[in-house]
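Morning run. Coffee first, then this:
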Amino acid sequence: MEKLSSKIAAVSATGIVLAAGLLAAPAAVADPVHAQQAPAEQTPVDTSKPYMGWSTFSQQVYHDGGNWLTEENLLAQADAMRDKLGDAGYEYVNIDAGWNDGTDEFGRPVPSAKVFPSGFQSFIDHVHGNGQKVGIYMIPGIGQDLIDAAKPVKDAPGCTTADIVKQPLQQADYWGIGYALDFSNDCTTAWATSVADVLDEWGIDFVKFDSVTPGSGITDGSMDARDDVAAWSKLFDERGMWFELSWAVDINQADYWKKYADGWRVEWDGECYCGTDALTTWDNVARLFPRLEGWWKHAGREGFNDLDSLNIGNAFTSGLTDDERQTAMTLWSMNAGPLYLGTDMTDIDDLGLKLMTNEDAIAINQGGHPARPIDTSKPQQVWYSSNDDGSFNVALYNLGRTAANVTVDFADVGIDGDVALKDIWGGTKIAASGGSYTAALPVHGSQLLRVTPGKGATVAIDGDDVRTAYEGEWQRNGGYETLGATQTLPVAIGDGAVAPEVARETTINNNDDGLVYQGNWSDSTGRGLGDYNDDVRYTESNGASVSYTFTGTQVKFFSELANDGGEIDVYLDDAFVKTVSGYADQRAAQQVLFDSGELEDGTHAIRLVKKTGQYMLVDRFDYAHSSLLEPQSAAFDRQAPADIELTSPRAGDIAGIEGLVEGTDYALTDTGVTISADYLAAQADGQLDLSFTFEGDDRDSVQHAGTDGSAVELTFTGTSATWYAPVAPDQGTVDVYVDGKKVATVDTRADVRSAREALFTTEKLKDGEHTVRVVATSGDVVRHDGFRYTVKKSVK
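And here it is:
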């Protein structure tokens, strides 16, 4: 928590109490704003794309003293951004902690006369006159002084600021500055409304709401600002203000944040808190990659993942190499993160200006399509997103410590066929062939590509893609999905062979691709302490987490017991289960810290969050699962040769048996698979391990909804399209429309669930823009996996 402590110290150095201006001053403070003339009408806020602008906080930390936040500096920054970056779309001037000083007679915030000697309204009017917008900073709750003052609430007779807090008093923010508000009380709503009215009168366009919980280092339920978020969201939305949440909010509440906010921070502060040595570090950029691996699917045009300030404007202050600066801008652009800068706007170098004003990179960012990774198991990574015109954005990253080649296979992006490539940073076209492209990248380097499907290419758009439009109450997964899987069938071969015994438990090491880590994690290998595979992954950051989704009936978490271990909160299927401890006087490796016990057979998710102690270690997970094959093992007796008959609850998902030829070595049946006696007879005596592959939903994810008119559609440019989804016993019929005309009714019910079935195809469409729409008409649930369409001509 050192950086969090540094943050509060840096902000407190301004002499302004960090409590959204809602703590009472020791004595009455004159209000220099309320008497000012109301500002001109503001431009409505556009929340359909990430905002662009600048925030004071990086400079406040960098100058590390508290005297930097002055009217003179703020005006200089606003004017410099207008002159250098205004044409590129940067417009917000956001003032972080320190803008306010005390409250007025109604308990509402008063701007600091020290910071704004000419008056806050004068500053706001100047920024608006630049064609820019103004943002401020708040946190949950009010302080003891304002409670004790019992100031009357404006336009709420009988209500005072002593009435609006929860009883008994509850801490409202991470730093312990204020107490939680009771939004079930009409007096609280009246007071919050009066605050929102004041901000609206001034002309405030944006509010950053900090120390939001669950999150901000507190996810154990001891602090919860969700009522605050919902109440302020309504008030700010009615007044056309952008509402941003901070910091490192809990991913388990992603749907809640998306419902009430326009953006939300997914990681701790990006600043390095290293004085004037630098604004940030590479580590603070690199840690965003695993964070976004979990967050990308929760963002889009209804709200954006906030990556914090982008500090790339000047080589002498950023703390990043030139390659790292380009990689940071690539990451922010690809992930549709709000583009707000922390750089000194009066001191931007040529590369900084080039990066921050690149039209194509900004267009990618403003498109609002967060990128997703193809594979994060290596430092060489590929992330991609789609565009409304049918093209794709692809970023190649080398996060390693040496130069390396990074390759993208376009089939992994969803394109089968020829492509055209444009290098965004170089501004040049690139030749590609063979369905892939390889870039030689320097240490921490990147390349940003626009990828356009060529003539005749087939494009796949899955259900998580922002281009897919939904009507109804659609949700992702929640037990309605099927994961891809493999299972080994041991077969004993020989005279009088007997089927071997089988254990149905799988071990997942700490570096498995399926584990999703949030926060700052590091690897330790070769410890020689008895760890599984002699390695662990560890964190020192409270609030850091690891999660794993599995299909099975039990899960166990293995870690280390040691005198530097601490408490860990355990969640199962998004519900808090218990707090376990990794503390012990004597070190012991591979200890079971949590055992779920017997679970209902199905898809489950376990999540562990560091709460206390110096370290939390992840060694391994074990999970038990029911067999996808019956029997679970088999024997081929040469004295009585016969086919092996297997049944499977997922017979429709059997994709193949490694090394065997369907139709010759085995045959698929409605209930399972038959392995040929002729094939088995040709194998050597001993144990033969046959590896079965079971197909899951596309990328192990599926969208689902009730069947009361729920609909999904895709608009594309091409000549044919296919809708693919599972068939299952709980599904029913859907009506399919092409360009507004009903063309088919499709029955999606089946006795056995089977993934990725091509349920409808339309061909020989006139080349141009078309819309395929699928509407549920019967059954308990409708599932959607994706669309595929064929391009006749390359996108212009």
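The domain at 2-366 is CATH 3.20.20.70 (TIM Barrel). Good start to the day.
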